[in-house]
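Z., the sequence and structure:
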Amino acid sequence: MAKMGEGDKRWIVEDRPDGTNVHNWHWAETDCLEWSRKFLSNLLAEKPILSGEGNLYIKIKNVEKLEGEAYVNVRKGKIIPGYELNLVLSYEAKATDSDGGEVVLATEGSVEVPYISDENAGEDPEIRITIKDDGPVGRRLKEAFVAKGKPFVFEKIRAYVTAMAEGGPAKDDLQVKKAPEKKSTSGTVASSNNAGLKEVKKKEEKKKEGFKSITLSEKFSCRARDLYEILLDENRWKGFTQSNAKISKEVGGEFSIFDGSVTGKNLELEEGKLIVQEWRFGSWPDGIISKVRLVFEEPESGITRIKLTHTDIPEEDRYGNASVVENTERGWRDHIFHRIRTVFGFGL
């Protein structure tokens, strides 16, 4: 074992005298939690929702709590945001009489968004709205917040998601650290232009590719037919994912899982042996459809091996988050395969 300070220099990223992380070759991580508090406070605090419409006045007061984690990883200029946040807002509300002169009720309430996550960047998160006064006027004020304030909060959360996808607080650093372009001399203008055109063409081709694949092999203590049936049974999907699901068991039939976050269609079905489907996530850019192929094998009695091949997964979602492939693979492992083992007792 090498002693401290020793080792093969080929595997060591040394500090440069100029402090430059060349091309962000190694990971550069920025903690974004405090920046997230300030960013969301600027968007949400002291913002009016209603200013007398229907004799109702509602204003968001403060960001009372923002807990969890938020960070941005950068490698070779590629931005990979990560965040899991719990947001709590306070608001004040009052109702006046028809003349607008006398205050009928003045009260307060709160808004909680328990889970803002990069995994669900393309979806509006769950939101809980409460009010201290539960009388008729209080209920009217709460309903008004649901109608007007809820879309406003979602709009600002989407702005936060976009800002994180662009680098959050690391965005300015990324711009500063970009190496200046070298000016070409008069004798090399033509060759430089040609090289530039070739580089642009390469980038365009790479952008057109922009897709990845996932292959996984998992074992379960059950018959292949049992596992096949679970993956096509909407009631059991609801059970092990704790989310809504609608699943057709026919070729050409459509499905919707994880509360509609994933939709698709059955392409091939062979009982106990094969499932081939189209899959699309709501957070992906428009028109992108991936393909899922699940092959079931029984290498021995009571043991099933499932081989997953998930192709045509975009590298980025519609918001520019570059963690799509990583999140998709984690979703298969943690939210599908692991939960099936846990809920149905199919662990080895």
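Residues 222 and 314 are 33 Å apart (CA to CA). The longest helix spans residues 136-165.

Let me know what you think.
H.
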